[in-house]
Design a protein that fits this description.
single chain, about 170 residues, mainly alpha, 2 domains, about 80% helix
Length: about 170
């Protein structure tokens, strides 16, 4: 199994650590109400929460059936409580999903900016490579493909090309 170059591993580790620290700082700066929503949504999305709900419902039914019927069948209070829980959990989950979507959008923008920067860097390197090839006496035929790629790409034009290809594909 191939291993990662130690320098690359160090740089990657540092990049990951920097991103995680930035995300942690951003999460800590969020208002308390949003941190609470995140915590509740995470807690409610667990097997433990499912089991606790199931145990509570079974306990409610058993208690009302065999011990003291303060909410006899059809368990009106239980249904009321379950309905309220469902409403609040749905809203909490929607808020949590919106926060996750915003985080995903930030990461998407970071990816896009890094890709655009990388494209410009590679274009600059390719231009330099063409000049080195010219000074080395390589023929244009040998450097034809590099020359074709040694120009900046317009992201808007590429996006238009994608949209057109999607339209053509659907038709």
């Amino acid at each position: 199994m191939a291993s990662v170059n130690s320098h690359i591993a160090d740089v990657t580790l540092q990049n990951i650590e920097n991103l995680l620290c930035t995300e942690d700082r951003r999460r800590r700066r969020k208002p308390l109400r949003y941190r609470v929503v995140t915590h509740i949504a995470r807690a409610c999305g667990t097997i433990g929460f499912l089991m606790a709900n199931a145990a509570f419902f079974v306990g409610w039914v058993v208690f009302n059936r065999f011990i003291y019927a303060f909410d006899p069948y059809p368990y009106t209070f239980l249904l009321f409580g379950v309905s309220l829980e469902a409403i609040f959990l749905s809203v909490l989950i929607l808020i949590s999903q919106n926060m996750d979507a915003a985080e995903s959008e930030r990461r998407h923008h970071l990816d896009l900016q890094m890709n655009l920067l990388t494209e410009r860097e590679i274009t600059a390197v390719m231009r330099l490579l063409v000049k080195v090839a010219e000074r080395s006496g390589l023929s244009e035929q040998d450097t034809e493909e590099v020359r074709q790629f040694a120009h900046e790409t317009d992201p808007t034009a590429v996006l238009k090309q994608i949209v057109q290809a999607e339209r053509n594909h659907r038709n």
